[in-house]
Write a structure and sequence with these properties.
Helices cover 22% and strands 25% of the residues. It is of the alpha+beta class and 101 residues long.
Length: 101
């Protein structure tokens, strides 16, 4: 029996990165909203006195939960290598100071 015929086995997915996406975008703030069907993640670059949403990612609730798990796992690995992350840097702006348009 060929493994490709078994739907219970994980399949390899080849993911391509378009050249225009390879440089990524930097964000120093994140706003999260949700509905019953999806989570909306707005990645924001704040450079006082203004900020701009430079990426919006919309995911299912199940995918959002998997993302949290993956981030937690990677943060644990990072901190094991480089030390504890200071989650309260001085540059953090309270969310209520951000005005969206």
């Amino acid at each position: 029996m060929d493994d490709s015929d078994n739907p219970d086995l994980p399949q390899d997915i080849k993911v391509q990165m378009p050249p225009e996406m390879q440089h990524g975008v930097y964000a120093n703030q994140l706003l999260v909203a949700h509905s019953p069907e999806e989570f909306i993640l707005d990645f924001i670059l704040v450079t006082p006195p203004a900020g701009v949403v430079n990426s919006r990612v919309i995911v299912s609730p199940a995918q959002a939960k998997r993302m949290i798990s993956a981030l937690q796992e990677n943060i644990q690995r990072y901190e094991a290598t480089y030390g504890e992350i200071d989650a309260h840097p001085l540059s953090n702006l309270p969310v209520d100071t951000l005005k969206t348009h």
